[in-house]
Amino acid sequence: MPASDRQGLLTIGEVASRTGLAVSAIRYYDDEGLVAARRTPGGKRMFLRSDIRRLSFILIAQQLGFSLEEIRAQLKQLPLERTPNKRDWEKISRGFRAHLDERIGMLERLRDRLDGCIGCGCLSLETCKLYNPGDKASQTGTGPRLVVQTSIGETST
Amino acid sequence: MPASDRQGLLTIGEVASRTGLAVSAIRYYDDEGLVAARRTPGGKRMFLRSDIRRLSFILIAQQLGFSLEEIRAQLKQLPLERTPNKRDWEKISRGFRAHLDERIGMLERLRDRLDGCIGCGCLSLETCKLYNPGDKASQTGTGPRLVVQTSIGETST
DNA sequence: TCTTGACCTCAAGTTCACTTGAGAAAGTAG
DNA sequence: CTACTTTCTCAAGTGAACTTGAGGTCAAGA
Questions:
Q1: What is the pLDDT of residues B82-132, one digit of tens each?
Q2: Under DSSP, is residue B46 helix (H, G, I), strand (E, B) or coil?
Q3: Which of A56, A114, A139, B21 has its CA 20 to 30 A from that of B147?
Q4: Which CATH class is domain A1-84?
């Protein structure tokens, strides 16, 4: 029997063409636990329609610069084995929105600073404190710490 | 003679502690042509003070998700061998600001879309057209194309 | 002069997010 | 049943952005 028998489940190829993702990428996300495909007796992956939503979320969050690790943390709030409901998604999207706001704020702060620097004609990132408020940045940590910090590690809710 | 003889030039170690970058990273940027250190007769890298500015720019732009390749393109507008002046930096920072605005706009659009989805309680990324306006995204290109596209490839000025 | 620390080069290793390839099995169309 | 497409696993490769390590040099202080 063709596609009608499969209880609304989708093959990896179908999911690929629906999301625009490569089949290999979807397999990778499955291996990494970002989605949880079930299997046919023959061992083929079958996806819930709601998995498309998960994958969409992954794509968008990635575009925003979140790592798969961070995205995985967000998605952990969703049930893997049942279709997520309203409440489930609301929780995620609220947290996501918070991160968006944070990121927008960071870019705006940077832009405004930059405006100031253009205004004074220097773009002296040292002087304007856009970068490395304390000069000796190397003492404050391993990597460089900027004013524009991101961090999605902990959900601040 | 100690640091006073060096005509205002900085060693790689000094640059590292000033910028918070690892020495190895600075060497890498030098190899990649993102900065252009001169050398002492003995072969040691010496940097202009203005190179700190270049490196600061690299750091900030990276935080915003620009690749070294893209950053290199921006920095190409600066003279490598002389200390960049007001005008030089103004040009860069204006282009940079444009990219910031673009990125802020993209995030705001996404946030507003997401608000709508939270409002209707679905976060149906498919339905809400946040992602893949035409469903069959795979036909519109190789990778997934989102509403939130970035691209800094061509400077639109 | 000797020693120490900062610096050098070059090759190889690392992490992330995948892709590619080989070889095999599953499922569908005729 | 045959042919063909899709899918499977597993290993290895890719590119970006560095880091690490080995082995050697340079320069300033005791």
A1: 778 777 877 888 888 888 888 888 788 777 777 666 554 454 444 444 443
A2: strand
A3: A114
A4: mainly alpha
